[in-house]
């Protein structure tokens, strides 16, 4: 990694992905090639030119494996096949060949905290308590019921001493995290939907089966994995004891990841692969351990701290106002914490988050300025940036007004549970409008035509009404206000400028609640990033940085409001990247 030798900072040993940018495709919503209303591999193949033009290095595909689609493919029933909804293995091979021919890499989603309840492993496991696969999942007996008819465990609402549920764990998709398998009389654990039973990583045969499956995909030619909720695979045994309140990350997670590395990645030194672990709840200190290169666990993790700052204490749907100072404090701490060992993933949105532009910027009057400002701030941090499909043209939240428009199991279950508990449906819909995952799952807007050019059929989820104005064709045709072109320049800058990939990060004015400013420094090269994170003009204080006190106009590497350059006033949502 970056080292200091004789005063000169070297970065020649840095892994390839330190100057790479990853693009996430959510296949259902990217492009529909066969007109059935659902995105597919044929659609992706037709649009690869868009991604090559953007200049991204890696494409990450959200799950395309065979699946009943209870959670849009994050419930896998066969790890070795492609769901017919998306295409075939032959089409997958063709897609991978085309991606490679265009100089990009292809990363698969790896979902091994759980399978679908329709996976052959689970069907076998639930066939009998004595089946060898029984122990591949997590089973517990119902807790006894006393003479008063009250169980020693919790009830479905989580009340202790009121039912037979083994622990009070709640599923991320509402309701208890345990479902009784009537035929065998035991509960199985599912941290997500009841159709997503959790695998038991304490079982060595299960672990070996997962590694074998990963090896088959790497042998086929894929370039790595994005690992779904990978820190959840190791459950702390104490948190499975009767009465335990919640899930705690188990200590064996590091052992599992190192073992996975040994069985899957260690011998593949001739290939440039990438691993990223999705880790809700991970701390900076944990992440430094997970991503320190000499520990051989993961290349980088997705942390959640910054995307939880606007959640209230009761749930993610308890929306709180955005606080820029808190965001800077958080992201700054992550930059510092992984400065010497480990590596950051950089993201503001994905298929589980609302659209970053609607959440953090102004998706109306200043759509172009705020989309480009957000992109510049993110991409100029130290780490590997992830572009979520549609962000490169400034797509916005869905704007749904009725529960019938939603498709996401998390949103639908939460709404139903809250309505049942007596909440006002209008208030719930307002929360969903901000927070639902469906905000980011609407079809990519390729044109202003029918179904936004996504499909010749009826899309599985409605396209956003603004697709007439916000779409790839219109954006790319714009000579001076193309969000796509801005992303293209940011990605190229990372490729060309070692200071972007490797420079030291320093936050400026951390307590300012409208300015996001920082420097990146490598040897005697420095970039100064000045972003007005507000809809009002911002007066820069010359004391902020020496470059602002010089008489000469500094070199502007990037700017989204050309007329502002040279003045000390940043226009609303303006970002300037200066060579200091
Ligand atoms: C995280 C994925 O990103 C999300 O979409 C999914 O619902 C859960 N993990 C469960 O797999």
TrEMBL record:
GO biological process, one term: oligosaccharide catabolic process
InterPro entries the UniProt entry points to: GH, GH13_cat_dom, Glyco_hydro_b, Malt_amylase-like_C, O16G_dom_2
Enzyme class of the recorded protein, top EC level: hydrolase
Record key words, sorted: Glycosidase, Hydrolase
Matches recorded under Pfam families: Alpha-amylase, Malt_amylase_C
EC number per UniProt: 3.2.1.10
Domain of life: Bacteria
Listed SUPFAM superfamilies: (Trans)glycosidases (SSF51445), Glycosyl hydrolase domain (SSF51011)
MF term (GO), any: alpha-amylase activity
Chain segments annotated as transmembrane: none
CDD domains, per database record: AmyAc_SI_OligoGlu_DGase (cd11333)
Protein name per Swiss-Prot or TrEMBL: Oligo-1,6-glucosidase
Organism: Frigoribacterium faeni
């Amino acid at each position: 990694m970056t080292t200091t030798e004789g005063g000169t900072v070297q970065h020649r040993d840095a892994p390839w992905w330190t100057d790479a940018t990853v693009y996430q495709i959510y296949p259902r919503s990217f492009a529909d090639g066969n007109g059935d209303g659902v995105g597919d591999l044929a659609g992706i193949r037709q649009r690869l030119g868009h991604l090559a033009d953007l200049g991204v290095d890696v494409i990450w595909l959200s799950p395309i494996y065979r699946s009943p689609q209870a959670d849009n493919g994050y419930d896998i029933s066969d790890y070795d096949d492609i769901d017919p909804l998306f295409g075939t293995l032959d089409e997958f091979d063709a897609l991978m060949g085309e991606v490679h021919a265009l100089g990009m890499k292809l990363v698969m989603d790896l979902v091994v905290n759980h399978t679908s309840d329709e996976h052959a492993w689970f069907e076998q496991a639930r066939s009998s308590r004595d089946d060898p696969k029984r122990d591949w999942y997590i089973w517990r007996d119902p807790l006894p019921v006393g003479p008063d008819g009250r169980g020693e465990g919790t009830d479905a609402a989580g009340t202790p001493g009121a039912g037979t549920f083994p622990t009070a764990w709640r599923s991320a998709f509402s309701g208890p995290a345990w479902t009784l398998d009537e035929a065998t009389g035991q509960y199985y654990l599912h941290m997500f939907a009841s159709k997503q039973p959790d695998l038991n990583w304490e079982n060595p045969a299960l672990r070996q089966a997962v590694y074998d499956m990963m090896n088959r995909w790497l042998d086929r030619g894929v370039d790595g994995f994005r690992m779904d909720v990978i820190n959840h695979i190791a459950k702390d045994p104490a948190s499975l004891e009767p009465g335990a309140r919640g899930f705690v990350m188990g200590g064996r997670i590091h052992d599992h990841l190192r073992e996975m590395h040994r069985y899957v990645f260690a011998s593949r030194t001739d290939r440039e692969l990438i691993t990223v672990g999705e880790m809700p709840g991970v701390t900076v200190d944990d992440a430094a351990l997970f991503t320190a290169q000499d520990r051989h666990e993961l290349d980088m993790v997705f942390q959640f701290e910054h995307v939880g700052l606007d959640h209230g204490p009761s749930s993610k749907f308890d929306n709180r106002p955005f606080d820029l100072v808190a965001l800077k404090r958080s992201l700054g701490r992550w930059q510092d914490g992984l400065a010497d060992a480990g590596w950051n993933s950089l993201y503001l949105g994905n298929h589980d988050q609302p659209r970053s532009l609607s959440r953090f910027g102004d998706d109306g009057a200043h759509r172009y300025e705020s989309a480009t400002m957000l992109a510049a701030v993110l991409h100029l941090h130290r780490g590997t940036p992830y572009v979520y499909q549609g962000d490169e043209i400034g797509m916005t939240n869905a704007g749904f007004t009725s529960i019938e428009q939603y498709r996401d199991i998390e949103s639908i279950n939460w709404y139903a549970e809250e309505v049942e508990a007596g909440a006002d449906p209008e208030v719930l819909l307002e929360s969903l409008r901000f927070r639902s995952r469906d905000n980011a799952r609407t079809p990519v807007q390729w044109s202003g035509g029918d179904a936004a050019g996504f499909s010749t059929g009826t899309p599985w989820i409605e396209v956003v009404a603004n697709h007439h104005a916000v779409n790839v064709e219109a954006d790319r045709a714009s000579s001076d206000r193309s969000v796509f072109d801005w992303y293209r320049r940011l990605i190229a800058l990372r490729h060309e400028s070692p200071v972007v990939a490797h420079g030291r990060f320093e936050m400026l004015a951390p307590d300012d609640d409208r300015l996001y400013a920082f420097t990146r420094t490598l040897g005697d090269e420095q970039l100064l990033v000045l972003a007005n994170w507000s809809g009002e003009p911002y007066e820069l204080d010359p004391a902020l940085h020496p470059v602002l006190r010089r008489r000469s106009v500094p070199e502007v590497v990037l700017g989204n409001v050309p007329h502002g350059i040279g003045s000390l006033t940043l226009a609303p949502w303006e970002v300037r990247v200066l060579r200091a």
